[in-house]
Sequence to fold (316 residues):
Amino acid sequence: MAASAHPQAVQPPPTATGLDNRKLGMWAFLGSECLFFGALISTYLLYRGRSVQGPFPNEVYDIPYTSVSSGVLLMSSVTMVLALNAIQRGDDRRLRAWLLATALLGITFVGGQVFEFTVFVREGLTLSRNLFGSSFFVLTGFHGAHVTVGILMLLTLFGQSLVGRLTVENALRVELVGLYWHFVDIVWIVIFTVVYLIP
Amino acid sequence: MAATETEREEFEPGGEARLPEEDVTHPGPRQYVMVGLVLAGITAIEVALFYMDFLPSPVVVASLLILMTLKFGLVMLWFMHLKFDSAIYKRLFIAGLALALSVFVIVLVTFGVFFRS
Fold:
């Protein structure tokens, strides 16, 4: 009975590596995402300082605002890892609380990004205005889209937990979403430094 | 030693449900919060560096890149558990990261991004 309640407990997954293929697949996907975001960040660097008309980065960036936004996303990684810790201990109540907190922090971050984009557009910076606008909006927009997908996955997990379909036996689901979420966070760590802070 | 006791206490109830390669050494909530605070601290230092106009630009850039790498590593090793999980995951991710870094550094050097006046 105990063995059927915790099927992963007794034996490793029957795969050639002894590892779960879903987790292996997620890591392979994240490895490929490095190339995706690498291309976007490189494009931004390539076009940096080559715009012939404004607005230019130093005219539109609001560093204190973006710093708070970055802090919010960083803290969402802490709540995410606490959610994983909760489900591994079979603590459903804390799992739901941390999942919801992570989703709310993610929503705050995306909301902040939408506000930032709105301000930039009001100041005349659009996707087609200059090279800076094109590379900036594509890079940060794709990152924001990734965060939005992460929020949807978190809310799905939250819903599954509410109806009792997310228990300690399928903690791997939370771990996989967590890996994706942390990846989105480390991409922002790079964007924040390379795009916003480096003069 | 105290950490081992904490880990045992925190993980034993659900411990039998874990995969074999993920055993025993995962940190607990306290360690995660500590890592989070360190990350917040590093971010604060980064922002402070941005405003230190009196420092030479190369020093600021180098410091920011070092701090960024530190944050990247902390999240990857602790929150994504690469410090504790199977080495295969680490190799898979590092392969993608190394490929991306080498390809794009070559592209940027080719276009003279690092040496532009």
Notes: Chain A has eight helices and no strands. Residues 1-10 of chain A have pLDDT under 50 and may be disordered. Residues 131-162 of chain A form the longest helix (32 residues). The radius of gyration of chain A is 20 Å.
